[in-house]
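**Backbone description:**
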Amino acid sequence: MMYVNKNFLKCCSLFLLLVGIGNTLQAQTVLQTAYFKIAIDGKGYITSMQNITKRPFREFSPADKPSPLMTLYNAKKRVYSYPEKAVYSKSEKIITVVYSNGSSARIRIEPHAKYFKMKLLSLTNSQDIEAIQWGSYHTNITNLMGEIIGVSRDTSVSVNYAIGMLALNDNTIGGTADIQGDAAPFQYIIHSPDDKRFPLPAHLHEGQVFTLGGDGVNDVAFYGHKEPYYRILYGNAAEVDKNGRISITYQSRDRRSPREVYFSLIPNMAINTPNHLQVQPLPGVDYIGSSIAFWGSPDSTALMDVVQNIVKAEGLPYPTVNGKWIKDPAAYVPDVLTEGGQYDHMIDYTHKLGFKAISLYDQGFVRPDRGNLGYLDGRNFEKKPLKLASGNLSHKEFSDLAKKYNIVIGRTPITNSLAPGTKDASPIPSDSIWYQQKRLLAKNIDAVDTLLYVNDPTHLQEIGSWEGHSKSLNIIKIGKELIHYLGVSDKAPYRLLNVKRGYWYTKATSHQALDTLYKLQVTINYGYDGLIPNMQLQDKIAEYYADLANINGLGYYDFDGQEFLFNNGHGYYSTKRFFRKMFEKAKVHGIADIRFTGATLSEGSWHYQSIWNVGGGKNLYDAETREWGSATSQGKDLRDVSYANYFPVGMGGNFPITEKSKVEEYEHIQAMAVGTGATYSLKLNQKNVESCPEKDQIFKVIRTWENARAANAFPRWVKQHLVDPTQSFRLEELDTNNWNLYRVNNKTSGRQLIAKLTRATGY
């Protein structure tokens, strides 16, 4: 029986209790929402977190681990300061917290119907405090950890509860304050989501960390553990302790002053060792004003009831597709991924499937080049790269045809990588390229000198960026010249070794002693070669993508190299800022929210990113063996990350229709996609599709499932059946509002009706 305080509907309950402890009195503040009650003691620690939706109220705060409301971080000493005293003003809704270092914080705590809003108003004695941290908030939940958005979930029928946080401003990000570069390491951690079903072997323990697989360059090989207790991490907004209990954390940093980080996204692999990176100061970006929403609710309704409520009420990014929030499972929809370079029937295929986007993946990479002003095909759209028998078309012409069917087209950019030959990279490099280190030239040089002496060799021996350490990208910039080098002498006078002047077709010129020398921050090679912009130029690149979409009729991007947004040292903040700029400029143009996938998923992109169809084939989901990743563990790993963070699971670029394709394959693919909450990019090669005798039946099957999904017609108990790979299903559409779902026996061709499905109200 559900229990909700009826008086809550009129006002949020907020009251102060005095609890006797020995001969002293310690103030305890008790606050509640419709679903969640917390208690904060007189020291500034959360000592109770309760589910108040049903009796008896279940306690989620571990008795041995009270949670600091907010902690302070001194980055130079790498130490935290913890609360020692807290006083709450009921009238002001402000709690004043005093810390072990003498600082005093004023924090507003406002109970709302479904969450607590917390905001840092002021902090004294803050000169040595680089960052503040909300929490960590410790729970006794041991099931699913959402390490990207900071959520602790118990999905069992008996408990069915989740506790989480969301940032309410861009400079508050998921994770702990001590993480270098504000992007948590990409690695495996040992955590069993169910110790009865998946007990740990004797040689492993909860919280144990392992590096990724492979050589550190081949990203498919990263995924090397199919065991369910090897959990890959895409953040650290949720962590586990030695008992498997989940804690959640957010932080906010003072970005106004220069600083240096020692950063790698994959620091445990030799080929991706950290680099020393200067981080650009950002005036006006501070932790004062940092704000979070802290919530608890039944897990089964948390996303659409609580998280959506927070997002809308607090004005957070709320992209939509087909009129629905992109996080609404009924809005999940696959896309078409083109192969073969022929487009005569692609729009027709997509329309018959019920899909809404065509990714022109066979057109290769789009590199951000502000020199073309956003015109992919020339100022008069004179280039016609899209081949049709009836006549080749520009992107704009093809998008205009697709728009008639409410379909958008898209391309794959290399996010913020400034490639050689583009406006901001070469032959005249911008002064807004970011750098790892800044030094001075020790002696004059002319245009042909290769003896370059520097005032300080510190860290100049480091190769390229942290990712792959590409020797071809070991570049310095002096004035408007790019110079390649490898190594630095080990004795004074210090000089750069193996110097090549006028790199990337820049002009070699003379330079004077004491001219500034910048060791540039870069991407990787393998076709991703590029330089990293500073934050202001990155803002312009983000706006460029909105311009590109507006001019060429694009509505979809696959941001390859998305992790390059971390390369300036601002991590998830950089990512949030990039996508906010892009979406804001798109809104100025009056175009629809841009749908996008990308190479990664982070707290910075979670609100904006629609899907995560990275990789593909048997690495993601193998429809033949019916398993998540038969070639590697990538499918299992990315499924677990996405699902735990209330994000659509990705099956990658997959399931091409060929002459051998059968309808039954796609009944299973769609059942698994709907049951798991997954999308995919359907690989379509026009020649191969036309060779398939069952293509029209396959289109119809996929469309039937997608119509029912968009109608939110699948209840939770049905989805639990659909994810069982040993079962087969068939869905029949009766009319636009009703469907019959059958379980099929593949051996006898018999079938059993298991559910009559109906369009949900509001869909």
